[in-house]
Input
Amino acid sequence: MSSLILEAKGITKRFGNVVANDRVDLSIREGEIHAIIGENGAGKSTLMKILYGMIAPDEGQLLVRGKSVHFESPLDALSLGIGMVHQHFMLVERMTVLENFILGSEPTINGIVDEKSALQDLKNLMLEAHTELPSSSLVKFLSVGQQQRLEILKLLYRKSDILIFDEPTGVLTPQEVDQFLKSLRDLKARGKTILLITHKLNEVMAVADQVTVMRAGKTVSSLAASSTDVKELATLLVGREVRAFDERKVKSVKKLSGAPVLKVESLSGVKKLKSVSFQINPGEILGIAGIEGNGQHELVQMLSGVKVHSHSQGASIQFLNMKIDQWNVEKRKAAGMACIPEDRHHEGLILDFNLVENFYLGSRVHFDIPTLLPFKEVTALVEKSISDFEIKAKSPFSKARELSGGNQQKVIVARELFGRPKLLIAAQPTRGVDIGAIERIHDELLKRAEEGMAILLISSELDEILSLSDRVLVIRNGEISAEFSDVAVQGPDLRYEIGRAMV
Amino acid sequence: MLPFKVQTLDTKLVGRWYERRSVVKKIISLPFMVTVLVALTAGGIVSLLADENPFKVYSILFSGSFGSIEAIGYTLFYATPFIFTGLAVAIPYRVGLFNIGAEGQLYFAAIALAAMAFYFPSAGIFSFFLAIAAAILGGALFAALPGIFKAYRGSHEVITTIMLNFVAMSLSNYLILYAWKDPGSQRPETIIFSESTWIPLLHLGDSPLNYSFILALISAVSCWFFLEKTDLGFQLRAVGQNPSASKVAGFSVKKCIVLSMMIGGAMASGVAMNEILGNAHRLRDGFSQGYGFIGIAVAFLGRGNPIGIIFSAIFFGALYRGAGELEIETHRMTRDFATVMQAIFIAAVGCEGLVALLLNKLKKKKGDPK
Amino acid sequence: MNEFHFSFVDLLLSGLRLSTPLLFAALGGLLSERAGVANIALEGFLLVGAFSAAAVTYLSGNPWIGLSGALAAGAMIGLIFAMLTVYAKADHIVMGTALNLFVVGALPLFNKIFFGVTGSTPSLELDQRLSVWFLFFVAVALSPLIWFFLHKVPFGYHLRSSGENIEASKSLGISVKRTRLIAVILAGMVTALGGAFLSIAHGSQFSRGMSAGRGFIALAALILAGWRPIPVILTCILFGLADAAQIVLQSYPLPDGSTLPVQWIQMFPYIVTLVVLVGFVGKTEPPQAIAKND
Output
């Protein structure tokens, strides 16, 4: 057993009345890959920010290589060899790769930046890490995977030997995830210690030596990865048995009848989408699988009416036998379409508006269009949604910002389902949401589908697609690359076939 | 059904109470009081620098602005353009636009108004309404330009409105000096317009306070009602807070941008009515003493809330009026002191967050047994 | 007036001269905005520079001391603006407005305290004034210097990163606040040189409102140049030329003997800017963390 390189003892951090970290203990051994898992709001991020010196704990002690330390700023952590790759990359988009590489630790000759030696260092490190980045290109032109590699290079340049990764794979494609996990093993082989914060249990099992589980601000347990499995970790995570993603509730093929709700023919977008055709029947859940950024966003925008397609040959969108190509968002909504947008903070909610206003925002067309705001009516509806969906909110007048991610998402789901739509476009409906809320939202979707609502489910989580869909389309480079029907009765091979169609 | 209804009623009441309390609390909070005190102290230091007794300065300021019926009349007369320009800045601001162009808009409104009064002087009451309508339309259309530039070309409104300010001012200057010049006057001004276009006085002492003030109040209340209680106002606020979510909800961001600018421009036109139809009865060069820019400060001090703007405009009006008295009654203080005080107040209120933070720290230290 | 000969060279020279204060102000604005502090207080910075240069030159009799006075006063006003925006975390635009108002009101008060009148400082002798061309070349030389400073000096790296991404800068141990403080102080000094140009080189005294909106025009030039130090020379000269054209054309007789109304010419540069901005440039991309507080 190697020695302990980083320890946290009894760390407590409060934000107002919320205890984000409650007497947290953590021991990291030198040279191991240590995963820290927990649901959203379990306190992982707070703990990492404390370890990296971004915020100071209210109580408790940090030890680096056995010595008690006190961080004033990330600079102190950096100087002790602790580096961090943040969930949102800490890169300056409009500076070059080289500039970002040395930013904050620029080598100088007579006060002037020594670009030559910096470039040499960058090249050497790229060689060691088997990666290649264009040194003079602006960071905004790099892919997400390249940006992440630049972040790692930055840490290596700063001679960090304890590397903290905060949710590193959320934004990567499956190939990039593989490459990333491989580079973690490389780093370990070079003697680096790695802290991996994640909620993806498969990845934990793939690379971690040790796993620490956090729940509600506390460390629940810490165990060797070799002595546990995904199921045990999931149970520790939530504190109770959970239904695993790949266990379907509905295991039979649905009998579908009636005219198709939505019929899309050779739809092309401006950016990614190329001649996409499909149709959905009443009560059907059609999953669109695929790596993010392959045209899903544009598809959602064009179906919901945020973007109206230019007249390309043969393209048409038919909804309940009406040609709706040129309809705007409101007209489509009034006709019975609803949409859970992909990014709830950016597209779904107005964080500084209260719940009543946010409810009205998306359900406006269902009131006889008012010159005056019908807030009395909406308030009653929000009240009802709060109790129906078990939304944790102080009052209908709470600001959306004050709610947790899962509760925010429930508000959106309640709002979009309020008008009893015939078709729901659900884009990443459970992204970044805790397991309880995922279950609640999935149950609601299944129930509505049983009642005859058609659902277009767009998700980058293959598990989610597999556990809900009746039929699956795979989207790649803006085109439908494969179709799989009768998902409910397919064997486990389906996952791999879909995965193959994605790349 | 019954329990559900009762529950709704309760939370609704609680919710309303909570909302109202928070507004009142925001305005008369401890940090705010401290901030005002700091600003007054800073102003006092400036008067000490000018070798004047600050208490004397403040008492002249106060009695000059509120000391008599006539003084109040003047204060409210000065407050009138500030209400209008405060709104002209605040409404676009709610959509996320920074309208530095109120000055240009009020000039353009004045041009439109004067054109009507100049060319159609003898249509009785009709002339009056024609002039008013022209002013509103002129202000709104002139403000629509930067809105359209922003919505359809992405041009930054700060730059385009600054440019348009210069254009409108030069244009009005040209018209006054060449086309509409009063040949009998030595000063750069047009002839006196027909009496049928005059806005009647409110007769508060001998002050020029006229019905434009009432119009300003009505405008402010209407703006508040529009933003908070109507569907269109909701759309404007939504776009200001989150344009992409508004798009997903089906609102037209472009429409809201242009509309908010047009409302702002229409509000700015009130200054032209007050100054031309209510007071001078002619278009004078430089009739606006930077009212459009002071509108930024008024809007800010009123926290972008139309009702708050009424109060902050009256405060600015009082400073204006009081400063005039200062010039007469002290040796070294001039009108400029009012400008300095405005600046100090804006800066102080802008830093209210800091004051609140410091107060909080102080409270914590006191509360901490250690 | 009939003997007046329209000379293109005169127009050009006059345009270059008049671009000097714009260039100083635009470069000051660049330092401030690239560091993330939105600066509509340039107008106030200019006035402070103009007043202090004229006042100190008059009192000392030496324009170089006056120029140093302008630099010191510029640093001071920059410090105040930075304290309000960076440390008190107030809204940059609102504070810029407040600062402009303050300067407009306070300078006449100071003038009255020092010189007994509110209008202007006493006139300077010819030998107490600086060469217009000297300051023009300083301004032009400053542009590549600032480019070098931004791209080749560690502090320049930090300045740009503070204006682009606060979180990233902080995560690398860069103090965004301190960086911005220094940037805005430098901005105040550079802009004050533009003010000094107006009062002790181009003119011979400080007078009320002598900046005449140049701070705002400089801002427009800066935006038109995409916040880049070399192109900003060109956009400032463009505005300088437009300014000169209005002065020259005012007295240039039309074929029928009359002159063009001055107001039409005055409008000209602004309309040109609008056409360029709306017609050709469209959306400009400001530093991404501009007006955001740490």
In short: Chain B touches chain C through 48 residues (CB under 8 Å). Chain B has one domain: 35-355. The two ends of chain B are 54 Å apart (CA to CA).
